[in-house]
Amino acid sequence: MNNFSIGNVLKKNVMTIALFVIYVFFVIMTGGNMFTPSNITALIDQNAYVFVLGAGMLMCMLTGGNIDLSVGSFVCFVGAIAGVFSVIQHVNTPLTLIIVIGAGLLYGAILGYLIAYLRIPPWIATLAGYLAFRGLGTQILITVSDTSAISNFPASFTRIFSGKIFETPWGQLNIPCIVFGAIGAAVVVFLNFYGRAKKVKKGYQADPMWFTVLKSILEVAVIAILAVQLAQDGGIPVVLLWIIAVLIVYGIITEKTTIGRHFMTVGGNAETSRLSGINNKLVMFCAYLNMALLTVLASLLVTTRFGAANSYAGQNFEMDAIAACIVGGVSAYGGSGTVMGMVIGATMIGVINQGMSLMSIDQDWIKIAKGIVLLAAVVFDILSKQKKDKKAKAAKKASAEGAAKTAS
Amino acid sequence: MAKVLLEMNSITKTFPGVKALDNVNLKVEEGEIHALVGENGAGKSTLMNVLSGIYPYGSYSGDIIYDGEVCEFHNIKDSERKGIVIIHQELALIPYMTIGENMFLGNEQGSKWCIDWNKTYAEADKYLEMVGLTDSSKTLIKDIGTGKQQLVEIAKALAKHARLLILDEPTSSLNETDSKALLDLMKKLKSEGMTMIIISHKLNEVSYVADKITVVRDGSTIETLDATTDDISETRIIKGMVGREMTDRFPKRHDVPIGDVMMEVDHWTVYHPEFSERKVCDDVSINVHAGEVVGIYGLMGAGRTELAMSIFGRSYGIGISGKLTLKGEELTLKNPKQAIAAGIAYVTEDRKGNGLVLTNSIKTNTTLANLAGVSSGSFIDKDKEYQVAEEYVKKLRTKTPSVEQLVGNLSGGNQQKVLLAKWMFANPDVLILDEPTRGIDVGAKYEIYCIINDLAKAGKSVIMISSELPEVIGMSDRIYIMNQAKIVGEMPASEATQENIMACIVKSGSEA
Q1: Strand ranges of the sheet holding B486-492, from the earlier edge strand across to the other edge
Q2: Which residues contact B212 (CB under 8 A, 6 or more apart)?
């Protein structure tokens, strides 16, 4: 039986299509301004932290709709200690990194222990961090600096997390960027066709050939456009490499590994999971440990982007990450969600943000728009699920009645 | 003859695929205690749910005539307004609220907008006195024992001006003294004119308290016995409960050799995780051989599930003591993971609650207990997983369009097959099946029995826990009988009859 149909494909990718429509809408509304190389680079730069934190938040939410409210404040705190060691104490960069990663490990382990083993509800345990780390970060910054900010990070530090690789002047086509784009496109095309060939060989259901071709063309087109645009703006931003790395790693974890499966199962039904031999507590512990580590990375990306650690860094980051997950179709009750979905959700919010800003719409209206999009995404999700449930139930009933008839 | 308060005429209720009630008639006179008895799943609770409006008017056929008029209850509120109050087996009290607050939940005293707490507690005390409870109504529920909580439930019902009180297994969580007190309270209420329906498995209590006894079997009312004119001894009631024909509903196992002892549990004692002085398994010793199907029969609450789960990596209970020997080797299994690794599988009675992940596919559920079986390192081989799931769908004849189907969309019987597939794929030596055919239709039951036979043929040890006597007798090689946390009998299936199994239970009940 082959249940491939255009309708199904459209249904599955409805958020992607919506994102595309919204993007085109803003490109038109801004008179093409949105589509300039520098604005595309800005879109990536400004939203890098959402992708990174979103990946961590996704893992937390998979375990049962659990969230981490402390990430924004922890971003501020990590920025502050990075500043203290790197700028004020002149500690070399590798050691600074080890220190901040250590701080992340320590906080993540404590948080994980509180939530997984002492069974403190996640939002309470992380609310404590939300309050404490904002205060702590601010205090550190005030104590060591008159401006309550630390700037002038050494280049050896900022280079790792910001700037461009093989940078070329603006307007000149950056060759390495084009080469990377070409390699990326080739890999995507290869994976598409290789995956299909493997399925066909083993006799599994595979998409029709024309669809694989069409899909590859669209994907290559997106990569090509992105590569050309970035190439005109000096090259590949370092943050993009970090984002891609994080997304690939977490994409693989959630889709292909037993660890990812364990996360889904704990969120899907914790009792079933426990009785299937999964260590639920360890899973919860890992979720929050992982979140803290990704928060460290996000903090470093943000701090180096601004070139300074300051006391308001990371404000509302937790909400951005949660919103990206929710808009991206991650279940608020746990058990389902994908990295790709989160990426779409994060990008959509980022696009709305940037598009409306470029149209000089007031910040308050942007917030209203984002709130409506968030709610609309969830309502849409729930309505479509209810519809599906009804259909499934009707089918079930029909089959039961059919069975009863044949029995009698 | 007293006035008839309630008449239920030809009530029929069907669930998809199952006829839960078939033409049931029940007549209750004013001022009597009417007992409903029957095996688990006979339809007693369904009948009471119809009466109290939990299954609304229109979802069943037949008439409810209460106090002379035909009633159409659409929800619990409707029936409560008429004075029909049901007290469920699981107590519905909120631990961190006072007795008084609990009693008037949804029935708050005072004006429409403002609760009058003085009136609430005064009223509460009044009703507490009626049920003979001396605690203050300002005591928190968590601070009183289950016996007293049950009395609070009754007081709560009285506060709703109940005329017909339905008690579903009221003594199932009470000890001997509390049970006696409760039954005496029922007699006292009767003398004050209250009409009551009691559902109970404890036949000695039924004979003690009831004026009339209606026996329900397979969704039909079989007979009604009158305490004043009929013999209502326990043996007589049992005859009514189990007097069904044994037909060949069970596939035969031919030439399955029974091997050595596979698993042995010795002097196994388990305590309740919350009420830590209560034993849920008391000095239980059982064993199972390779290729053998051992049945554990017991009524609900006998401690069967608790026994199974405590063996399965101590996943239930505290203070577990006793010896567990598997293939001649004494083991201590600290968690389900170790139990699975040692070769034990526990197939739960609650497939939706803790057996399956309903929002996941058949494929994902099948490999859940043995992900390592389809992975290399920590990477899942999705092709292999797909193949495994397909294989089990074919082998167990699960009806589904594909293995990607969410198990939440399957019927009960097919869900049960997915659950069995999950544990079969974990490749255990001992499978503990807890109520493997609960809530599934006859055809699917037969298929599950065939699977059990195949497992035995493959040299596995099967422990089948069930509260259906014909099933236990028809499927087992050997039967343990469990009652009130103890093993009270053991017999080969060839010697087992429904009557002598029930006799074991009755005997142990009267000894206690």
Answers
A1: B344-347, B430-434, B461-466, B293-297, B478-483, B486-492
A2: B28, B29, B32, B33, B34, B35, B224, B225, B226, B227
| B390 and B435 both lie in a single domain | no
Give the nearest partner residue to B375 out of A258, A271, A400, using CB atoms: A258
Q: Quick one: residue B458, left, alpha or beta (phi over 0 = left, psi -120 to 50 = alpha)?
A: alpha
Can you tell me the distance from the alpha carbon of A62 to that of A51, in angstroms, rounded to the nearest whole number? 16
pLDDT > 90? residue A92: yes
- Give B131-188 pLDDT, tens digit per residue: 888 888 898 988 888 788 888 999 999 998 889 999 988 887 777 778 888 999 999 9
3-state secondary structure at position B359 = coil
Instruction: Give yes or no: residues A268 and A184 share one domain.
Output: no
- Minimum Cα–Cα distance from B359: chain A residue: A268
> If you count them, how many residues does chain B have?
512
Burial zone of B372 (CB within 10 Å; 0-12 exposed, 13-18 middle, 19+ buried) = middle
DSSP string, A292-304: HHHHHHHHHHHHH
CB contact under 8 A, A396 and B16: yes
Is the domain of B109 the same as that of B131?
yes
3-state SS class at B225: strand
Q: What residue type is A133 in one-letter code?
A: F
d(CA A342, CA A329): 7
Same domain (yes/no): B302, B313: yes
Range of the domain at B394: 352-427
Where does a domain end: B427, B462, B479? B427
The shortest C-alpha distance from B73 to chain A (Å) reads 25
The pLDDT value recorded for residue B190 is 92
Partners of A257 in beta bridges:
B379
Of the listed ranges A66-75, A109-118, B265-274, B294-303, the one predicted with least confidence: B294-303
Which domain CATH number covers B450?
A: 3.40.50.300
Kindly write down the DSSP assignment for every residue of B414-466, as one continuous string: HHHHHHHHHHHHT--SEEEEESTTTT--HHHHHHHHHHHHHHHHTT-EEEEEE
* In a shared domain, residues B126 and B137: yes
Residues recorded for chain A = 408
Structure tokens at B74: 């659409």
- Domain span at residue A181 reads 168-234
Complex ipTM, two decimals?
0.83
Give domain status of residue A252, yes or no.
yes
Q: Is residue B90 part of a domain?
A: yes
Q: Which chain A residues in 182-221 lie under 8 Å from chain B, judged by CB atoms?
A: 198, 202, 204
Angle at B350 between CA B349 and CA B351, to 5 degrees: 100
Our count of domains for chain A comes to 2
Question: Shortest Cα distance from A221 to chain B (angstroms)?
Answer: 29
Query: Which residues of chain A neighbour B399 with C-beta distances below 8 Å?
Result: 399
Does residue A335 sit within a domain?
yes
What is the Cβ-side half-sphere exposure of residue B323, based on CA atoms within 13 angstroms?
Answer: 9
* Nearest chain B CA: its distance from A66 CA (Å): 18
Alpha helices for B263-373 (secondary structure H): 304-311, 336-342, 362-366
Inter-chain Cβ pairs, chain A and chain B, closer than 8 A: 101
A342 and A196 part of one domain? no
pTM for the model: 0.81
How far apart (Å, rounded) are the C-alpha atoms in residues A241 and A165?
10
The amino acid at residue A236 is I
Distance between B397 CA and the closest CA of chain A, angstroms: 15
Chain A residues with CB-CB distance to B382 below 8 A: 256
Establish if B364 touches chain A: CB-CB under 8 angstroms.
yes
B136 and A CB contact within 8 Å: no
A126 and A183 in a single domain? The answer is no
Percent of chain B with pLDDT over 90: 42
Task: List beta partners, residue B26.
Answer: B8
